[in-house]
Design brief:
Layout: H1 2-31, H2 38-47, H3 58-82, H4 87-107, H5 119-145, H6 151-158
């Protein structure tokens, strides 16, 4: 399960990053919001790179943006291979994506906790992270489905729902 989850997750996460970037550019055309330099600033702090005042280097911004998205895609692929597929799983994954950003940005001092943000910025960030999470999820789910149902799905097929009298399938069948 892990080898396909790795390459499929990197692919799914990259697809999610592209979709999020397209949604961001479309939103920026409508709202006039400038590019964010938070990804580059976070990467500079995490890696010990020299920091630059003002506009950040585009390659550093893209490296952090795409790299973080691709790596997190592996987690969503593992979820899909385990049988956690569909919109509910993508919604759960959106929380993971947001949490990852906030940990890195706040730990480096580049970001501030979302409750302190202007509401419009918060809504925009949530929207774009949802685009990422649901796109990544759709791609991860489709790729994992080529291997058949995951262990959780096979268990659920025994009897839908959670029941104390239904244990997991025998080993080797999960």
């Amino acid at each position: 399960m892990m080898k396909p989850a790795l390459w499929q997750g990197l692919l799914a996460g990259a697809a999610g990053a592209v979709a999020m970037s397209v949604s961001e550019k479309a939103e920026q055309l409508l709202t006039g919001r400038p590019d964010s330099h938070v990804p580059a600033r976070t990467m500079e702090r995490m890696s010990g790179m020299p920091e630059r005042p003002g506009r950040q280097p585009v390659p550093v911004n893209w490296a952090m943006h795409l790299g973080q998205a691709a790596l997190l895609g592996v987690l969503r692929s593992v979820m899909a291979h385990a049988g956690l597929r569909g919109p509910w799983s993508s919604a759960k994954f959106a929380v993971v994506r947001l949490t990852n950003d906030q940990i890195l940005e706040n730990a480096t001092g580049v970001g501030a906790p979302p409750p302190t943000w202007p509401r419009t910025e918060l809504v925009v960030d949530l929207l774009h992270k949802a685009v990422y999470a649901f796109t990544t999820g759709a791609v991860a789910d489709a790729l994992a489905a080529t291997s058949g149902p995951g262990p959780g799905q096979r268990h659920a097929a025994m009897r839908a729902g959670r029941h104390p009298d239904v244990g997991p399938p025998p080993r080797g069948e999960a």
